Amino acid sequence: MSDWVDSGGDAPYFCTDDGELQDLENKHPDHWYPRRAGRQKAPLTVSLAAALLALASHLGHARDRGQYANVNPELKAWFESLKSGKGPCCSDADGTAVSDVDWQSHDGHYRVRLDGEWLDVPDEAVITEPNRIGRTMVWPLRGHLGLTIRCFMPGSMT
User: Fold this and answer.
1) Which of the four pLDDT bands, split at 50, 70 and 90, describes residue 55?
2) Scanning 14, 17, 108, 140, which has the fewest C-beta atoms within 10 Å of its C-beta?
3) Where are the chain's structural domains?
4) Which residues of 98-119 are buried (b: 16+ CB within 10 A; e: fewer)?
5) What is the SS3 string spanning the chain?
6) pLDDT exceeds cutoff 90 at 60
7) For 140-156, what is each residue's pLDDT tens digit?
8) Is the predicted pLDDT of residue 89 greater than 80, yes or no?
9) If phi over 0 gives left and psi between -120 and 50 gives alpha, with beta otherwise, what is residue 59?
C-alpha cells in the first residue's frame, strides 16, 4: 500500500487562528503547531474573566460608610436586630425609607412601590414589632431573579 501523498494526494493543511490554511510541509520546525497559541487563549480568557468577576463582586455588598455614626446607639442596635420571617433585615444602612404615597395596605396585606413598580410584600417579610421611628421602611434585595423584599416595616401613614 502506498502513502496517499506520494500517490498524488495533497498534503494535509492546518487552519491558523486567522482562518488561513497552512501547508505543514512548508512550515518551519519551530512552528510545528500553528494553533497552539489559540488553544492557550481560551483558558487565559476564562481565567481573566473569573479574576475580574471576583474583584468586582464586592461592589454589590452592603457597607456602612459611616453615615449613621451619629445615630443613637440604642436605635442603631434596634435597627440591626430587626428581622422578619425571611431573616435579619441587616441594618438601617440597607433599608430605604418609603413615602406614604409609595405604600398601601389592603385587607392586612401590603404593597410598596420601588423603582416605579408596585410589588406585593410577602407576609413573611413584614416586621411585626412596633415601629420605633414612625416612618415606613423597606429592605429590597436586587438579584438575578429581579427585585424582592426581604423586610417591610409599615409606618404610621400620617
Assistant:
1) low
2) 108
3) 13-60, 73-153
4) beeebbeeeeeebebebeeeeb
5) CCCCCCCCCCCCEEECCCCCEEECCCCCHHHCCCCHHHHHHHHHHHHHHHHHHHHHHHHHCCCCCCCCCCCCHHHHHHHHHCEECCEECCCCCCCEEECHHHEEEECCEEEEEECCEEEECCHHHECCCCCCCCCEEEEEEEECCEEEEEEEECCCCC
6) no
7) 988 888 888 999 999 87
8) yes
9) alpha
Q: What is the mean pLDDT of residues 27-40?
A: 55
Contact 124, 83 (CB under 8 A): no
Give the span between the Cα atoms of 92 and 100, in whole angstroms.
18
Q: Which three cell numbers stand for residue 147?
A: 427585585
Distance of CA 16 to the CA centre of its chain: 37
